[in-house]
């Protein structure tokens, strides 16, 4: 791993402390649902808990309630249960964390010395084909929805169903429009390429791709080609660099791989459209240098080492996602 001079180390620590460090995606709540651990206790399992978020200087964490394939028969119930358990965990740790519903809530939590927890749903199966569920989820505090996972659902084809060439269904068009009306962010991570372009045709507000990487590094449907990266930027959206596939090319996953991904996104999309979407607890194993959220400062160190300015580092660490989340409107 890179070695910083004393001056660079001091600068990295200063930037990290002054930034809103915003991770746009993790799957941690699944292990809590399954009773493996709680968020309030530091664990040697997985990647995230509240003590490690605190130690790593993470100010805002988006917790995704992932709709597991085995939940599809009862997706609404299981999604509601996941949201309930997540909120209960936050209430039990109220001195450390606040549920956030907007960028203003994130900034307030940071000012109060707390971690902001935002709620996402990963998988439109959570709607079970009922558009009215969007309002209910919004009222429960859900700020974004990943429209698809890998499989086809009522909204669109997922990344692993790309062979069919299918995109948004009529119901999917309705979902995108209603999400924007309700003040929710449309997240197009995992969607099929045709679905990606269909969403861009329908959406009128900035979009996010909460966790992805360029196809240049791993050519699979869920990753983004250059035209897709540019299109998100043109819509003033943000792409979160994921840690999941950092071991591309058969190499051992490391922070250097992730920095390469960030560099590439910045080169293609521009500095205002790149953030962090770790996908912590969505994969097994560790990435050298980013073994858990406790090591997030290493990302700041790496950006300092690679010559990014203070302002640009703050944008990547969280400023860009905070900008997009500032466009969310409260449900009235």
What does this structure look like?
This protein has 332 residues and is α/β, with parallel strands linked by helices. The chain has one domain (6-325): TIM Barrel. The protein is built from twelve helices and nine strands. Helix 5 links the parallel strand 3 and strand 4. The mean pLDDT is 93.
Question: How would you sum up this structure in a few lines?
Answer:
This protein is of the alpha/beta class.
- Specify Rg, calculated over alpha carbons: 18 Å
Helix content: 25-40%
Strand content: 5-15%
Poorly predicted residue ranges: none
CATH topology: TIM Barrel
Write the layout of secondary structure elements.
Layout: H1 6-18, E1 22-26, H2 29-33, H3 50-56, E2 60-66, H4 75-92, E3 97-99, H5 103-111, E4 115-122, H6 133-139, E5 142-146, H7 170-182, E6 185-187, H8 193-202, E7 208-212, H9 226-234, E8 238-241, H10 255-269, E9 274-276, H11 297-305, H12 310-325
Parallel strand pairs: 1-2, 2-4, 3-4, 4-5, 5-6, 7-8, 8-9
